[in-house]
Backbone:
């Protein structure tokens, strides 16, 4: 094999490897698009993306106006929304404890076909909730 032919093949391998590293499967791309849309919706309403608690496995936002102080460190100090599955966003309300950990929108009948619409419809209630109030759902 000639030197130029071998260099050409090396450049192609490098180009293909780079493209493969950037390629995202369509289902993952759809999930990312949904999370980006959710982020835009929430941050536009005053929610903050929580870099400290978000990981590769889930993302979370919190609502600063809901913040409250509790003596018990096991009590959630702020209302938050987290996503591990874009079809089932979940909410934990300020004042919730570990025993409430399973409490989330999906447990209360979110429409699996359109969870974004259900979440959008519930945001005003979620944002209005303060520690000690009756739970909105």
Residues:
């Amino acid at each position: 094999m000639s030197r130029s032919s071998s260099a050409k093949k090396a450049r192609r391998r490098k180009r293909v490897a780079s493209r493969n590293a950037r390629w995202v499967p369509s289902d993952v791309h759809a999930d990312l698009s949904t999370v980006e849309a959710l982020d835009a919706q929430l941050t536009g309403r005053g929610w903050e993306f929580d870099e400290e608690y978000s990981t590769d496995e889930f993302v979370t936002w919190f609502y600063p106006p809901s913040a409250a102080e509790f003596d018990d460190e096991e009590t959630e100090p702020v209302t938050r929304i987290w996503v591990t599955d874009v079809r089932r966003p979940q909410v934990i309300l300020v004042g919730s404890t570990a025993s409430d950990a399973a409490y989330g929108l999906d447990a209360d009948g979110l429409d699996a076909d359109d969870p974004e619409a259900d979440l959008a419809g519930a945001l005003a209630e979620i944002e209005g909730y303060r520690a000690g109030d009756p739970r909105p759902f």
